[in-house]
């Protein structure tokens, strides 16, 4: 009998009882891809904030330390670490220590950091987390970062307003923070008024920077948990392809993930149309429409292993 490979990952993100964001968005797709997922919740909420009201609690520093101490006591080791929404700078600082500890035990473990801070010009965490994120990145242990455009601008202290400033941003991430893999999950530029672009940039073994972008059609509705799902699928693909012969494994990984994501969003929109009997758009603060547009992760479970690539990449 052949014993299958067991891949272990610690996922530190938010949790909601109802709906799919944070760990609720990431865990099931990772399990479908053969990951043994240990889940550490940074918050425990009834639902995500898009509903207009929310109940629940945020983890305290003492609780986080106690939980991780318990994991250490039983000798856990991880092939990967996925970090998402973190509520404050004290928690984030300790998560930096967790990353250091995991890497010290298993240097080849993969750390994907999603610096969840805000979007569309609005910061929804304390500004005190910004220098902590920068400090963690300067530590050189993060393998992949997946900010959106606004989060990238915050970390770099300048606006991304064109292809030229986008190139500068990618170079800064590679040189200042010594990051090997960068994915800007969503970026709006004047050159592409009708699309969102997803950008990936990778330093190859010969120390050359390869940067590409994908044009992604805009779906006129509001979805939550998309970035969390994107990061979970991406860490799976990068783990799978990083030791392959291809020096551009990041491009392949992002293309596969975008293809899957596109189908999930289309399926989610279709289910909302069938349920309501008409085409509708979800709106922030509207509980009724939010419920209909929760990601259909269970219905799309057969998609997560797909290697189909339907997007064209353009070299920057």
TrEMBL record:
Entry's family note: Belongs to the pyridoxine kinase family.
UniProt KW Transferase keyword: yes
Organism: Wickerhamomyces mucosus
GO biological process: pyridoxal 5'-phosphate salvage
GO CC annotation, single: cytosol
Record keywords, A-Z: ATP-binding, Kinase, Nucleotide-binding, Transferase
Domain of life from the UniProt record: Eukaryota
GO MF term list: ATP binding; pyridoxal kinase activity
Broad class of enzyme this protein falls into: transferase
E.C. number(s) listed in UniProt: 2.7.1.35
Protein name (record): pyridoxal kinase
Domain Pyridoxamine kinase/Phosphomethylpyrimidine kinase: 77-234
